[in-house]
Amino acid sequence: LEGYDCRINLSKFKTHMYTRLTNALKNSFGIVPGLGKAMLHMRSPRPVDLAVNIVDLYETADFALHITDGILCLDGRGPSTDGRRRHEGFLAVSRDGVCLDMVLSQMAGLPWDHLDSNVEARSRGLGKPFEEITVLGSHEFKDFDIPARSYLNYIPPWLGSVARLLLRTAPVANSRCTGCGVCKRACPVNAIEIKNGRAKMKKGTCIMCLCCHELCPENAIDLKLPFGRS
After folding, report:
1. pLDDT tens across 16-55, in order?
2. 61 to 10, 28, 33, 92, 204: CA distances (angstroms)
3. 3.30.365.10, 3.40.190.10, 1.10.3720.10, 3.30.70.20: which CATH number matches 169-224?
């Protein structure tokens, strides 16, 4: 990150099945090279834990400007192709990524303090109190479908990683799977194999990075609880 006059953060506004929304703060994950992202996911068994790492990266990156591309957005089961593409037709710009995420989440129908990364950032004194943020212009989202908060956040840390492992969702290939191998090639921990023309997840290896869910061209990756997985 050295040797540049400034760093600009260009994010796409969309939903995320794990973090609910992804924008300026979550986009900071992009500064981590290669398998470093996988390691951060392994250390973040709950979305609230991942939020800590996201804000750490945001502070490290020290972006000079944040630009949100909201011309074509995604809601529903994002960030994969299973989400719903929506033409919202807006651009949003701010020098403060926390304020930007707070305002856009609120506009989209999710109170700013229902997004873990916003709450973590504000606990560190980043951004501003919501009522002190100046907003120029406006955008009206209509029926923007945002995923529910993950139940993993309600499992206290003292119950340990075993309880979270037993209760966490995991990707499962459904009948639309063609065995193309896109998910296998994208998986940072080699947790997927192709058997009998269909993707199979190796037990105990998935780190819930959701790369397979995001990149599958057939919308063939479902997220399911341990009970009843095939």
Report:
1. 988 999 999 999 998 998 777 777 877 777 889 899 999 9
2. 13, 7, 13, 20, 33
3. 3.30.70.20
